Amino acid sequence: MPQAPRVVATDCDGTLLRSDGTVSPYTRDVLDRCSEAGVLVVLVTARPPRWMHELGDLGVTGLALCGNGAFTYDVARREVVGHRLIGADLTGRLLQDIKEGVPGAQLATESLRGFAREPDFERASGRIDGEWLRGSLGELAAEPAGKILVRHDGWETEELSARVAQVVGDRAEVAHSGAVRMAEVTASGVTKALAISTWCAEQRRPVDATEVWAFGDMPNDIPMLEWAGRAHAVANAHTDVLAVCDEVVASNDEDGVARALDALLRGG
Asked: Do 229 and 179 belong together in one domain?
């Protein structure tokens, strides 16, 4: 039997949440029992902080490491309590270089102010919340970015991510979280692994990687999964994620994360 964790680090969309974005009553019950048992559950997600409000409304509280590690967010207080941003000057250079190096790219940013985009950037989610600016690249660069979002109508996600990675080099991190035809850029070194490992080290009684169970489904989860003492993939995970995990649990729509944690709490 694997060592019981002190901390559970789980991705949200495609992992903890069902495909319709909801949290099942069963999952909420298991998360409550984890808290009662002293197992801390940390949400580690590509979502921007404002998209965590709805999880609070669904009964999920605690800490969230958002934007692939760029923002630390208190779900209950609905407040960003820490951040790792790309400086405004570098944000501007990256935006310009990506625009020139990836013809046809549509660009947007997530910052402490919210969402900003070029006029032609299409929000596939259809959401309009949090938008503070629709403007030029120069205007987008006025705020340090937690994430730069790159969308392209003609390239699939993995091809686009590889092209963006070539352009930015070692100046930033490039990942993708499952959004169709979109790559995500964070500050150099900023990944889900950095965010959760830093948080664990900062605790009054520091948490070692061996005391962490991680759950994920997409390539942006891989750094966190490789860092954690025990890595779990949901059955619907990307093949690259399945390849690095210690255990495959049931799919997100079958409450795979909750079922694994329920078995832990029941001692088997």
From this structure: no
